[in-house]
Amino acid sequence: MYLTWLDSNSWLLEIGQQNILIDPWLVGSLTFANLDWLFKGLRNQERSIPDHIDLILLSQGLEDHAHPPTLKQLDKQIPVVASPNAAKVVRELGYTNVTSLAHGESYKLHQQVEITAVPGSPIGPTLIENGYILKDLTTDLKLYYEPHGYHSPQLKQFAPIDVIVTPLIDLALPVVGAIIRGQQKAVEVAEWLQPQVMLPTASPGDVMYEGLLVKLLQVVGNTEEMRSQLAQRQLTTQIIEPRPGDRLQLPLQQRQVQPR
Q1: Predicted TM-score of the model (pTM)
Q2: Structural element, H or E, at residue 193
Q3: What is the pLDDT of residues 164-185, one digit of tens each?
Q4: Cα–Cα distance between 241 and 90 in angstroms, integer?
Q5: How many helices (H) and strands (E) in the chain?
Q6: What values do phi and psi take at 162, rounded to 5?
């Protein structure tokens, strides 16, 4: 299993001989509803579009996960698996092979990788977006991705999971509280799933942010505190902090494949 972090929540996952592009923001700036004064993300340099993509995987329909300028540049024939909210975005952009997954539903990619949607981040009072569990059907290695740190107790049925990609620090707003939940939530999900490796997502990497919202955001915690908390709970989980653009081969021990 290989992972390449492309800044923010964007990842290229190589699993089961498949290349899966997750929540891609590779080109242009990032804004919400064109409100530059409120929040704007700027890249020092645009990321190259990967040469071969077997699937695009979208956890949310908001611009930082279903980024319209990037999606417009990608080949619209590439299959997409998405939350119902994100599926609407890509269909409106002209994608022709879109699978919308509700919580608990699964999709098999070329009989090599099974993708299961689980409850993820709440967006507003009624909408809960997706997290995903991706399983290599040839090795049984599993990865869990959730970009805002909202972890459903339903995950316990999938334990153990080998790799977790989720925030490891909190980003909080005055009065509102944490909008990205790392720290205690990351420790909790590590206790549930007993991962071999954890990697942080939602970090800025080589991206710069500006706007009123950015000035109000408060960062709580750091990676060393997370390592200490895992050790206190006698978890052997390794935290890896990737550099943007680096292709990492994850140091995983393959578990014995269970009879089907």
Answers
A1: 0.92
A2: helix 184-193
A3: 999 998 877 766 667 788 888 9
A4: 30
A5: 5, 20
A6: -75, -35
